[in-house]
Write a structure and sequence with these properties.
This protein is mainly alpha-helical. The protein has 9 helices and 2 strands; from the N terminus they run ααααββααααα. The chain has 2 domains: 138 residues, no CATH class; 72 residues, no CATH class.
Length: 233
């Protein structure tokens, strides 16, 4: 049985509070984009943090890694310069190797930072940093509504598969149309139940959220300074 992203985030090992994590990643990104040494330091530190936080780091990095490697391969054969190697009509140049290396390092450094944020920080924790109340409420309610629709879609899909509803093109089209129709009807039912649940809990327009500990600020500052020091190496 596979874990959901939310369960992975909740069970991950956190060495700093959500505010420190978010600001660390956001402030580190400009440095990652600018300097090669900062990229190496950021890749090392964020990878260590991610591996400590969850065993799913490498699995989460796999999908973007395939795309990055494919894109880097294209770069390797498409930039003009002094020829280093060739294979039939394909040529690798010194300039293409330089650009491919810098692109590869920059992408993996940035993704390692984002992976750490994704593995340790839930959307409600991230959105709680937004100061505008109504905007925060809209984002959280939309997030909850999407979860409800995905649950309904998965339930209907499993029911249809059990009845061989996707066997053949004609059945597939008919079943897909029925699932869409049922999702539309059930979404209204769930919205009504959601409104009743909010009223039963005396909802006053302020979306409740759990308060997380804000520790780890010193560690976040030390990591940021380590990445920043790459500019002077």
């Amino acid at each position: 049985m596979t874990e959901s992203l939310e369960s992975i985030q909740m069970n991950s090992k956190k060495v700093m509070g959500p505010k420190a994590r978010v600001w660390l990643v956001l402030l580190s990104l400009p440095l990652i984009l600018l300097d090669t040494q900062s990229q190496l330091i950021a890749l090392t530190l964020f990878s260590l943090l991610s591996l400590h936080a969850s065993r799913y780091y490498l699995k989460l990095l796999l999908a973007p890694a395939v795309f990055i490697l494919f894109s880097t391969t294209v770069i390797l054969f498409t930039i003009e310069g002094k020829e280093i190697a060739s294979l039939y009509f394909l040529k690798i140049t010194d300039k293409s190797v330089e650009v491919a290396q810098s692109t590869l390092l920059r992408c993996f450094s940035a993704f390692s930072a984002f992976c750490y944020l994704v593995l340790t920080t839930t959307l409600p924790e991230f959105v709680n940093l937004v100061r505008v109340g109504f905007l925060r409420e809209i984002i959280l309610l939309s997030y909850r509504a999407i979860q409800v629709l995905l649950e309904e879609a998965e339930s209907l899909k499993i029911s249809a598969e059990a009845r061989l509803g996707f066997l053949g093109l004609r059945r597939w089209v008919k079943t897909t149309a029925l699932i869409g129709h049922m999702m539309f009807l059930r979404s209204f039912e769930r919205v009504e139940k959601f409104e009743m649940a909010k009223e039963a809990r005396c909802y006053s327009g302020i979306f409740p959220s759990a308060r997380s500990e804000g520790g780890g600020k010193i560690l976040a500052v030390m990591i940021f300074l380590a990445i920043f020091s790459g500019l002077f190496i």
